[in-house]
Specification:
Strand content of chain A: under 5%
Helix content of chain A: 40-55%
Strand order of the largest sheet of chain A: 1-2
Radius of gyration of chain A: 24 Å
Number of strands of chain B: 8
CATH architecture of one domain in chain B: Up-down Bundle
Distance between the termini of chain B: 63 Å
CATH topology of the largest domain in chain A: Cytochrome Bc1 Complex, Chain D, domain 2
Order of helices and strands of chain A: HHHEEHHHHHHEEHHHH
Number of strands of chain A: 4
CATH topology of one domain in chain B: Cytochrome Bc1 Complex, Chain C
Structural class of chain A: mainly alpha
Radius of gyration of chain B: 27 Å
CATH superfamily of the largest domain in chain A: Cytochrome c-like domain
CATH architecture of the largest domain in chain A: Orthogonal Bundle
Largest sheet of chain A: 2 strands, antiparallel
Order of helices and strands of chain B: HHEHEEHHHHHHEHHHEEHHHHEE
Mean pLDDT of chain B: 93
Strand content of chain B: 5-15%
Low-confidence stretches of chain B: none
Largest sheet of chain B: 2 strands, antiparallel
Oligomer: heterodimer
CATH class of the largest domain in chain A: Mainly Alpha
CATH class of one domain in chain B: Mainly Alpha
Chain lengths: ~280, ~450
């Protein structure tokens, strides 16, 4: 088993499988590098190509070997699922890419809320796992193809109507109830935001094209990207905690500061004793 | 020059004897007597900054299309005229944002200063006969400041305050019998209505500030007439006031405090962001954000709603909703208790004497323990109002945190009462011991044959 795993790892990490990938889907490196951004907006297609074409057989094989090592104990043989985790036969490339590229899967502790972290697999292995899962059904949404859309106003309307109820007006995340957190959007790259919208990870609702059109999705992703640089023109934002931070600051600076002045100019027990 | 002006005035108005007397009025020196002055200077600051804002604010719910350049993500968006005018006064008006932020900070500090001032009055027994009138006026001032703060917070028509306005209207509607009329009077219809902002504006800049001004004048007049209380001490009796004369000693001190207050508020306004309505977006009923909190002086009411029971009663064909208990009945009871405390205390501890000398807090365990318990209760409600922020920070389920608060609000105040009572008793015993046992000394013979005194430490 260990030998198999090591072989699978070496095979996946070697340049060979990457060279056989027909398109380079959703590389987080490409998405996050400043060169790929223009004013915070994702550039037109080139970078993001849907994995809809049938993947080559050897990539599926590598993915299957990775699946057998890292995923099978929860998601079950042939992606049928176990009592611990759902089956993946109806998952698409968008779902798998989101879960793996944001480091949510594999879970450290099964049954807990998947949280963002460093990805456990390098890009070629993620591509291989996507190919494997898609070859077993893959009926779910593919990795969305994004286009540049400069309509921030439209993006903001979509965000305020659908997203800020959980992710907050500033995108810093908030409580979603019953132990679940709506994560901050500040670490997400555009394609991950789009994947989350289309696939609805965790308790997040899934928005199909009938709910949010592709055009609106482009605008929304552009607005979320713009939120990465919050417009704190009023000064220090107090960790965007809203009136909670403001109340604390009002008490500490306002009341605390004036009391210090009172102690300086007024009579205190210490002054009386030293007099 | 000044002398000539004063003489000119005196020959026509004849106020010199009063003025001469007034300038000599004695003000106690202890620092805690200045807590109320911060509130007074906040009132001056908030009127001045608010007047500037009225030049630019449009109290209108008319729908307009935003065509400013300050916030690109709002260009072409339909919003209320009020919200658009706040964006304009924040980003396209000289000093608009710093004045608006300082005005908002001032509201937060104003209410906090009143609470600290009232705590000083309460824990030293300064509300006792003959000062019950100023206790009642002072508490009314706190209520008015909370009301003025909430109406002001609601004016910009942003998504955050719009949600709060809807909650406030629902609470008003939940009051049995008169709720509908109260809500209609305060909000001009069903929130959001075309009249709401205009109605709140009149309440915010005219109705409440006039009442505040009149009551602050009455508060000071009663204080002037009754003179200050003072802590017991050397030469301090029931029939005198020991302190510094108003002019020049106390004036210098008070002006220093005034400048410090104004300076801190302007520093906060310039450096620390408050209520960034451009981030919250214009209000539409379906765009509530999360986390959502009101300002701190309303936060304890929000906490009360979060903890309150889902208890709807049907009484004679009318439904009393769950909102009523936590949103109106509980705060009503708390304020009624505070209003009535001077009379409750006199019933519990019969005392018809006039009091010009203050109690130190531990001298009256019942009063101090009650105050600590009530403050603990209200503080827990306030903390419960941000349970979702705490859940995010601690990664504990918000439902578990809410239940912890539901238990804590009934368990912790009695514990705080017992603890405060015990501490007061210990301090009383300690002071009684010190009075019975004046400091003793040990005589030590030195090598030269002389004698030195060494104090014996109090056990």
């Amino acid at each position: 088993m260990i030998v198999l795993a090591a072989a699978a790892f070496l095979a996946a990490a070697a340049p060979l499988p990457r060279a056989t990938v027909p398109s380079t889907p959703a590389s987080p490196v490409a998405g996050a590098s400043p060169g790929a951004m223009s004013n915070g907006m994702p550039q037109p297609p080139a970078t993001y190509t849907s994995v809809s074409a049938p993947p080559p057989a050897d990539q599926v094989k590598v993915g299957g070997e990775l699946y057998a090592v890292h995923c099978i104990s929860c998601h079950g043989a042939d992606l049928r699922g176990t009592p611990m985790a759902p089956g993946l036969t109806s998952s698409g490339a968008g779902d798998v890419d989101f879960q793996l590229s944001t480091g949510r899967m594999p879970l450290e502790v099964p049954g807990t809320e998947p949280m963002r972290g460093p990805p456990s697999f390098p890009r070629p292995q993620i591509d291989a796992l996507i190919a494997y899962v898609v070859s077993h059904g893959g009926t779910g949404p593919p990795i969305p193809v994004l286009h540049h859309n400069a309509d921030l106003t439209r993006g903001r309307v979509i965000y305020e109507e659908n997203c800020q109820q959980c992710h907050g007006a500033t995108g810093d995340g908030a409580v979603a109830g019953f132990g679940w957190l709506a994560p901050s959007l500040k670490a997400s790259i555009p394609v991950q935001v789009a994947e989350a919208v289309r696939t609805g990870p965790g308790i997040m609702p899934r928005y199909a094209a009938a709910d949010i059109s592709d055009r609106d999705l482009d605008a929304l992703v552009g607005y979320v990207e713009a939120m990465h640089r919050p417009d704190d023109r009023g000064g220090y934002s107090l960790a965007s905690a809203g009136p909670v931070g403001e109340g604390l600051a009002g008490w500490i600076v306002g009341v605390g500061g004036t009391i210090i002045v009172m102690l300086l100019v007024g009579e205190t027990l210490a002054k009386k004793r030293s007099a | 020059m000044i002398r000539a002006l004063v003489t000119w005035m005196d020959e026509r108005l004849g106020g010199a004897p009063f003025l001469r007397n007034a300038l000599k009025k004695a003000f106690p020196d202890h620092w805690s007597f200045m807590l109320g002055e911060v509130a007074m200077y906040c009132f001056i600051f908030i009127i001045a900054s608010g007047t500037y804002l009225t030049f630019f604010f449009h109290p209108s719910d008319a729908r307009v299309v935003y065509n400013g350049t300050a916030i690109p993500s709002l260009r072409g968006r339909t919003m209320s005229d009020a919200y658009a005018s706040v964006l304009k006064l924040s980003f396209e008006t000289q000093a608009g944002l710093v004045i608006r932020q300082a005005h908002h900070w001032c509201a937060n500090v104003f209410a906090a200063a009143i609470v600290t001032h009232m705590s000083r009055i309460y824990f030293t027994g300064a509300f006792r006969k003959p000062r019950e009138i100023n206790w009642v006026i002072g508490l009314t001032l706190l209520l008015l400041v909370i009301g003025d703060g909430f109406t002001g917070y609601s004016l910009p028509g942003d998504a955050l305050s719009g949600a709060g306005l809807k909650i406030a209207q629902s609470i008003a509607l939940s009051i049995p019998v008169i709720g509908g009329w109260v809500a209609f009077l305060a909000f001009g219809g069903n929130v959001p209505s075309a009249e709401t902002t205009n109605r709140l504006f009149a309440i915010h800049i005219l109705f409440i500030p006039l009442l505040l001004g009149a009551l602050i004048a009455a508060h000071l007049a009663v204080l002037w007439r009754q003179k200050h209380t003072q802590f017991p001490g050397e030469n301090r009796r029931e029939n005198n006031v020991v302190g510094s004369p108003l002019w020049p000693n106390y004036t210098v001190r008070s002006v220093a405090l005034m400048l410090a207050t104004f300076g801190l508020l302007l520093l906060l306004g310039g450096l620390v962001e408050i209520n960034p309505v451009w981030l919250y977006g214009p209000y539409d009923p379906w765009t509530v954000s999360s986390p959502a909190q009101p300002d701190w002086y309303v936060g304890w009411l929000d906490g009360s709603l979060r903890l309150g029971p889902r208890l709807a009663l049907r009484v004679g064909g009318h439904t009393i909703t769950a909102l009523f208990w936590a949103g109106a009945a509980l705060p009503g009871c708390i304020f009624a208790l505070i209003y009535a405390w001077p009379w409750i205390e006199r019933r519990l501890q019969p005392d018809e004497r006039e009091h010009e000398l203050l109690d130190v807090p531990w001298a009256n365990p019942l009063r101090t323990a009650t105050g600590v318990a009530v403050l603990t209760f209200v503080a827990l409600l306030l903390f419960a109002g941000s349970d979702d922020v705490q859940a995010r920070l601690t990664h504990i389920s918000v439902q578990q945190i809410t239940w912890a608060y539901r238990i804590a609000v009934w368990v912790l105040p009695p514990l705080a009462f017992a603890l405060a009572w015990r501490v007061c008793r210990e301090l009383q015993a300690r002071h009684a011991y010190e009075e019975d046992h004046p400091p003793r000394v040990v005589l030590v013979r030195t090598d030269e044959g002389g004698y030195d005194e060494e104090p014996v430490p109090v056990p």
